[in-house]
Design goal:
alpha/beta, 8 strands, 8-stranded mixed beta sheet, 332 residues
Length: 332
């Protein structure tokens, strides 16, 4: 991209998923700018055409470049916020002064803000009131998107024409994007499935069998559905890519950071994994606030509660499993 040329897409965050999405936008023919805090990442992307620290083996597309200046990235027609959920407010507040009114800020984080209990779209609406919140979510691993493997995700905005516009600009022959106006439903699916994926990982790591993982996933979906419907999500959204689809993916693969965390816990590894170095499992930071919101609303979420209790050190894995299996018999 030449100096002074306005990018069509900006990606705030140079992690694995941000880099993969930037390359996907490049393959869709969009001039794309990645913003990164780390000067070495900017230099590697612009010079070596790689981001080995976050997405090994990937070549940066010719239409993609990097910057360390938020004001430069904010000139884009569309901005993807690909930062951790608990960092979303800070990054949005930092970029807000430079964002033109009406610019879509597309949230790619999956979580609920700790302390406030805000959903991600509410965080963006508060931090950048002139922008238009949107969400991109669904069953997609960074490595699959980067390799150009067939992937389908959902884009949501309160105005479906905005969601469709985002989908049209980012979609390609290998990245199929569906659109919806059910903003809340899409973001709830992503936040809740992260917590449930930890539980599925525990069951897998404890070698409790494929039947147990399937049962956990199905009952977890029932919890996701109860929570989503209470907060206004549509049933079809929860049954779609950003709900059931993302849950199935995250509950079945060690590529999922949340599943991998649960798997390690199931194998008897310590809780220091939650705050230690390495890939961030968003569900570990979402579990407590998810359970708090559910309890306040009178929503029954025993699996999520068990995950929160294990992560909080209140019970161990075996106690959590025993408690879930000892629950009273009930109609499905």
């Amino acid at each position: 991209m030449t100096v002074g040329e306005k990018p069509a897409v900006a990606v705030l965050g140079a992690g694995a998923f941000g880099t993969a999405l930037a390359n996907a936008a490049g393959r869709a023919g969009r001039r794309t700018l990645i913003w990164a805090r780390d000067a070495s990442a900017v230099a590697a992307i612009n010079g070596k055409r790689s981001n080995e620290a976050r997405l090994p083996g990937a070549r940066i597309h010719d239409l993609v470049s990097a910057t360390g200046a938020l004001e430069e990235a904010a000139r884009a027609d569309m901005i993807l916020l690909v930062v951790p959920a608990q960092a979303l407010r800070g990054v949005t507040e930092a970029v807000a002064p430079f964002v033109r009114a009406g610019t879509p800020l597309v949230i790619c984080a999956k979580g609920i803000e700790r302390g406030t209990g805000r959903f991600m779209s509410e965080v963006v609406a508060e931090a950048a009131p002139a922008a238009v919140p949107a969400v991109l979510s669904g069953p997609g691993f960074a490595a699959d998107i980067e390799k150009g493997l067939p992937t389908a995700l959902t884009v949501a905005a309160e105005d479906d024409t905005v969601a469709k516009s985002i989908a049209d600009r980012l979609g390609s022959s290998t990245l199929r994007l569906y659109h919806t106006s059910d903003l809340r439903g899409v973001e709830i699916g992503g936040a809740t499935k992260n917590v449930l994926a930890i539980a599925a990982g525990v069951v897998s790591g404890r070698l409790l069998g494929a039947s147990a993982v399937a049962a956990l996933t199905a009952r977890g979906f029932a919890e996701l559905t109860r929570f989503g419907r209470h907060f206004g999500a549509r049933a079809e959204t929860l049954m779609g890519l950003s709900g059931l689809g993302d849950l199935i993916l995250s509950c079945s693969s060690l590529q999922s950071r949340n599943f991998a965390l649960g798997h390690a816990l199931g194998q008897g590894k310590g809780l220091d994994l939650v705050s230690g170095k390495g890939a961030l499992a968003e569900g570990a930071l979402t579990a407590e606030i998810l359970v708090e919101k559910a309890r306040d609303a009178g929503i029954d979420m025993p699996i999520a509660e068990a995950v929160d209790a294990v992560l909080g050190g209140m019970i161990d894995v075996d106690q959590a499993i025993a408690q879930l299996m000892a629950r009273p018999q009930k109609a499905e």
